[in-house]
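Q&A log
Question type: sequence-to-structure
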Amino acid sequence: MNNRQDDRKGHVIGFGGVFFKSQRAADLAQWYKQILGVPVSDNGVALFRRSDNQEFSNNEITVWAPFDHDTPYFSPSESSFMINYLVDDLTILLERIKQKGVLPVQPIEITKDGKFAWIMDPEGNKIELWQPLRAEDEE
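Response status: OK
Response body:
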């Protein structure tokens, strides 16, 4: 009889990182640090620990999904990727970045999965900001 843990060996079991090319990597890293509060270190790398915050009902979920090559979901970006960032309070974040001249590219969307907003970074990459539902939102 196989051990359930042994059945998991040799398979993808989570999300390890996001890597993408940039025209000016150091400048773009600083933009993400200054605008979105990404904890970028001196060497230009950010390390995130999955949220232990029990305030969110689905705080252990990371989504991975390929999209059709002609999807309009990434528009107006022409990039072949879009990164979804988990945020603790979407409303406060949007107010803060608005003061720095960064505006959503489409209206906030509220679904059964949470609140979503989309912005563009300085290199034309669309960014998805996601605030999961809070545990009390589902009751």
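Response note: The two ends are 40 Å apart (CA to CA).
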